[in-house]
Amino acid sequence: MSEAIAKSAISKVKRFLIPYMFLLYVINFLDRVNVGFAALKMNKDLGLSAEQFGFAAGIFFIGYLVFQVPSNLILHKIGARIWISIILVIWGLVATLTGFANSPMHLYVARFLLGLVEAGFFPGVILFLTYWFPQRDLAQAVALFMTALAFSSVIGSPISGIILDHVHWAGLESWRWLFILEGFPALIFGIITFFILPNKPSEAKFLTSEERDWLTNEIAQEQSEKAKQKKMTAAEAMKNGRVWLLAFIYFFGLIMGLYSISFWLPQIIKGLSKTYSSQAVGFLAMIPFLFAAIMMVVNGSSADKKAEWRYHTQIPLVISAIAIFAMLFIKTPFTSIVVLSIVTAGAYAAFGPFWALPNKFLSGAAAAAGIAVINSIGNLGGFFAPYIIGFIKSRTGNVYYGLAAVGVSLLISAVLLALLPKEATQGAKRY
Questions:
Q1: Consecutive H or E run containing 13
Q2: What number does CATH give the domain 2-424?
Q3: Which of 98, 288, 371, 395 is the most exposed place for a label (fewest CB within 10 A)?
Q4: Membrane topology for this entry (predicted)?
């Protein structure tokens, strides 16, 4: 009977929460990376060099670093419903106003502020999911949620291309409308979130009383077991060696790979042929991200079924690195798209299993602080990756040399993963 209730509870939570958080993350990530598509026309209008564009793309993550730990502690205290609603509304305003930048400095300021106000969203959702999913279901839940990384580009790439080629309303350049139109949904969903998002299982009207009780007790028991092993405060979590190791793994591997692709893929595809329009680039960019979305779900599900999360993080990063090095020797557009799909899938597929690793030893306020530390330090890779590629491209004229530097970074992350103790990377198998 309890097994049936458990399966039913987890299934309902996945059906209710994951699609909604997925939608919010699509909006979030599109606002974060649409600067890559805007660059196809914005760089010329604002006089941005490759290096300046890389800096503008990356400065987002300096602002992103500042506010994550306090944001997660606030969410833990007042609940996700109120705090995520506030974050959505403010970032929607900043994202929309980015369309009115008139100089490189304006763009730098807008991107920094966007990072500052978005900082609490992703680590807040990861923390929120730990309130709803037991350890053995968490990697798949995170992977399903994080397929939004890929689907935001599957959906957003063609839309961005169409806006760039066809929307010139009120005398404004199309890249400005790109920021305005894609920033507005965050404002709408910030209001919706306040009215529909439950903070925890005990508030979930979509669960039966038996399901609420089982899920509440299951999560509480896991938290209690982790506390017995060693009760850790938020301050201790922020100094914990394993937390910092995970932060560096996230920095060198997942984030460097993610944002290299997200910010530079439109320009890489545009460079494959002089005949490609912005709209054509948008539709071609769908292909790597669609493949990545599929592999995220497959890899996250496999990690949970086998109750093994290290190798399911490590192997995709190595595959992605190898594919990056192969790009140095590929000349044809078709083969380039195929290999770029492998690069993208490897970088993205590691996310679900990775985010199951902190939940093995963090709970409560320690989880709030630890997850925020991992995400904030790790996301500095989002500054360095696009900037390094832009810096190297400005000096060599070849974007693939910059990508090769990122490939080395992915291999460093794979080596760091080997340092995690075995008990921190495995657990009980799914029901």
A1: helix 2-33
A2: 1.20.1250.20
A3: 395
A4: Multi-pass membrane protein
**Banded pLDDT at 424 (limits 50, 70, 90):** low
Q: What is the pLDDT of residues 339-349, one digit of tens each?
A: 999 999 999 99
Concatenated DSSP letters of 234-278: HHHHHH-HHHHHHHHHIIIIIIHHHHHHHHHHHHHHHTT-TT--H
Distances (CA, A) of 90 to 10, 86, 109, 224, 406: 32, 6, 15, 36, 32
* Neighbouring-strand partners of residue 308: 426
pTM over 0.90: no
- Which is higher by pLDDT, 149 or 208? 208
What's the token pair of residue 73?
A: 């502690």
Q: Are 382 and 341 in contact (CB under 8 A)?
A: no
**Per-residue DSSP letter, 199:** S
Alpha carbon distance, N-terminus to C-terminus of the chain: 13
User: Using an 8 Å Cβ cutoff, are 51 and 209 in contact?
Assistant: no
The string over 381-413, giving b where at least 16 C-beta atoms fall within 10 Å of a residue's C-beta and e elsewhere, is bbbbbbbbbbbbbeeeeebbebbbbbbebbbbb
Phi-psi region of 332 (alpha: psi -120 to 50; beta: other; left: phi over 0): beta
Neighbours of 75 (CB within 10 A): 25
Domain ranges across the chain = 2-424
Cβ-based neighbours of 132, under 8 Å, separated by 6 or more: 13, 17, 141, 200, 201, 215, 219
Q: Rounded to the nearest 5°, which phi and psi values hold at 273?
A: -155, 135
Q: Please, is 217 exposed, middle or buried when counting C-beta atoms within 10 Å of its C-beta (0-12, 13-18, 19+)?
A: exposed
User: Element (H or E) spanning 79, and its range?
Assistant: none
* Alpha carbon separation from 341 to 81, 222, 336 (Å, rounded): 36, 38, 8
Reduce the DSSP state of residue 426 to 3 states and report it.
strand
* 337, 200 Cβ separation under 8 angstroms: no
pLDDT digits (tens, 9 = 90+) for 95-135: 999 999 999 999 999 999 999 999 899 989 989 999 999 98
Would you say residue 422 has pLDDT above 80? Answer: no
Q: DSSP character for 308?
A: B
Q: For residues 429 and 431, what is the distance between their CA atoms, to the nearest angstrom?
A: 7
